[in-house]
Protein: 1-deoxy-D-xylulose-5-phosphate synthase
Organism: Actinocatenispora thailandica
Amino acid sequence: MALLKSITEPADLRRLAAAQLTELAGEIRDFLIRTVCGTGGHLGPNLGVVELTIALHRVFGSPFDRLVFDTGHQSYVHKLLTGRRSGFAGLRQAGGLSGYPSRTESVHDLVENSHASTALSYADGLAKAYALDGSDRRVVAVIGDGALTGGLAWEALNNLGACDRPVVVVLNDNGRSYEPTVGGLAGQLAALRRRSGYADVLALLEGAPERSAAPTPSELFGGLGLGYLGPVDGHDIAALEAAFAAAREYGRPVVVHCLTRKGLGYRPAETDDADRLHSIGVLDAATGTPVKSERTWTHAFSDELVALGSERPDVVAMSAAMLRPTGLHPFAVKFPDRVYDVGIAEQHAVTSAAGLAMGGKHPVVAIYATFLNRAFDQVLMDVALHRQPVTFVLDRAGVTGPDGPSHHGMWDMAALGVVPGLRLAAPRDAGTLREELREAVDVTDGPTVLRFPKASLSDDIPALHRVGGVDLLRRPERPDILLVSVGVLAGAALAAADELAALGHRVTVVDPRWVRPTPPVLADLAAEHRLVVTVEDGVRDGGVGAAIATLLADTGVEVPVTVLGLPREFLPHAGRGDLLGRCGLDAAGIAAATLDSLGRIPTATTA
Ligand SMILES: Cc1ncc(C[n+]2csc(CCOP(=O)(O)OP(=O)(O)O)c2C)c(N)n1
Ligand SMILES: CC(=O)[C@@H](O)[C@H](O)COP(=O)(O)O
Ligand SMILES: [Mg+2]
């Protein structure tokens, strides 16, 4: 590790000889395998960009020249080369290194958002700003072939193709998102990958007559007005440096097409046909096998969807390049012609689902809660306006944990709560997940949404009985507090009720199940208590609890409501339980907030 330890800033790279660069690449791979297997993270993607990142930092002068990493999951090597090796022991842990670029960590980092397909737009804007300042700073956007399937990237390419600003687009083409990249673009890139090597393309660009018979370097990009250099061997540092140096002087936007291999240098990743160990938990580094495997909410959804698929031939499934992470793979195996992977294209996924519904199908769009944010208009105007029966299954809802602020799925219940005709359920356990999924696909006149966390499953929580669609989980004699728990927080709510009961309080606990729109029966239940407390793992403002307070106000039920939820903040990366506790959404926090509210109820109204 001597060479890696000697690199504290990119300038240190430029004094290394070629042989040392190869040795450094080996040290970086060893370091990544050893540390990321111990912490979890994006091992496969980062093993694929070792040489590419070394070459980038040798040719471009970060932070004067700006490097923008699309999605940012492949920025570990960049972090190692910019002085953050010592932080990797705490990767993606509370107070530790972020798994994505972080402006507070380094001046070399720019974009923290882990949502794909944004880098080219940032680059376009940065280049415009530098052009206005008369600066000759270069802007380099590193984008994967998967991220290039996102529509936003093509909006940016359309603009870049018409300008003469010095933007370098480094296309990190490993042929995969998680799975092999899909769509017509994948075919085009595959054709380009099969072309001769980089030197041939340079000769072509220089117009050497013997090359004139070859096709133009890239109809894909050239046709848009962008330069194209490549394909380049993405693991040959000298070739990469030559291409980047040519790109740096190109004078207008140019794509450098780099061919890389995801997971290179770690056999379990290189041989993993699923997703080249794209995003891993803690692994046994020697074998590449997970240290622990547990049954999660995703498994419960996956199994029930397969069962539904056998009963309902109209049910089809859709993913935005995340077939396995969202649990759709078993459905795809059993019903290969009824599952669609549209690439990293959530907006297209939603509107295409509206089309499928108009065609008589019932699409189930499986997507991480945070990634649906970018398709809000499509849910609102393409699905709900037309009252189309599309079911959205939002995995990673609530606090996800290690992936940090742009991954927490905390906005859905507030954002989707304003969509007319949309119904949203928050199951509390596997049993209610199965039940509510079936209820959702039976809805024929509008969108339905289910949301559940990135978590292992606990035991099912039985209901005493159901009233107005709401499950009563606890119902003491002469209750004084109504505790409304949303989804997975039912366990914490019941534990809080136990703590309050030990202090003599009598707490009714209910699970609304379908939380948007607000079940009217909650007004009747509230009227029987002297305090209502709502708890949800979604943003508090405009969330479920706020809507319940509005219901009570609209129906004249004058019972105080305490709304507990996530703050309107970007929450850091940390353990999920730790973050929920910090936000007062564990049993102790719920009990304390309830006692505090009780203490503020004027005694005149005390029963
Ligand atoms: C909008 C959005 N959808 C989905 C994801 C999940 N995701 C993270 S990385 C990734 C694959 C990225 O593939 P690529 O851009 O080719 O990068 P590679 O991992 O191959 O280096 C996906 C789908 C995301 N980050 N953002
Ligand atoms: C970068 C990205 O968006 C995904 O790779 C994400 O990190 C996966 O999250 P999970 O590990 O929770 O599936
Ligand atoms: Mg890729």
User: Anything to note?
Assistant: Confidence is low (pLDDT under 50) at residues 201-215. Residues 144-146, 174, 176-177 surround magnesium ion (ligand 3) (CB under 6 Å). The longest strand covers residues 531-539. The two ends are 70 Å apart (CA to CA).
